[in-house]
Amino acid sequence: MSVDRSEESGPSRSVEVERKFDVDAGTPVPDWTAVPGVASVTEGEPRHLDALYLDTDDLALACAGVALRRRTGGPDEGWHLKGPLVDGGRTELQWPLGDGDTLPAAVATEVAEYTPSPLYPLARIVNDRTAYQLLDADGGVLAEFVDDAVRTIDLRTGENRAWHEWEVELGPAAPAERAAREAFFAAVTEVAFAAGARTATSASKLARALGH
Known about the structure:
By secondary structure, this protein is an alpha+beta fold. It has helices at 60-63, 105-111, 178-195, 205-209; strands at residues 3-4, 12-16, 18-22, 40-41, 45-55, 67-72, 78-86, 89-95, 103-104, 120-135, 141-154, 160-170, 198-199.
């Protein structure tokens, strides 16, 4: 993977705290206003996401709990570097797409903290997503709920996989205290299970794409 040194701007930074659920395709989305604090839910916004994941031959990034992808589509398209899971959340750095699939120098610098080895295509994940915002009484975003139809290919083996899942990720108006967040997720889980969802069988889309 070559490196583009023309894009040196700093990344945006966020912390991703979410819960995932497996669900059968076609399952109606839950009534999220049954979750305490959720006053309304926005209409669904369709998004087509196409992500190429990269790693070293010996999967150094995956072994460190890190994921690197170049994703097109959706409001946050670009290069993403997700760090290891810490205290229930993953820090995510994001850079603009740049030109073609060339790795920006700023991204390469961050990746070098985990491995100096060359990067190669690992998996492609195509996701047809419908996204909804769960709002509080003041219109603040408590969480984003996404209904995902996922198709993947393991680029090492050529194996294709497909499944359906739901994700609920905390938003800027989510409870700040850990106990309150856990109570919120407990209510989310109860509503999701009542609608037909199940505990997720894999920790991430990438892990599942690779058969884990």
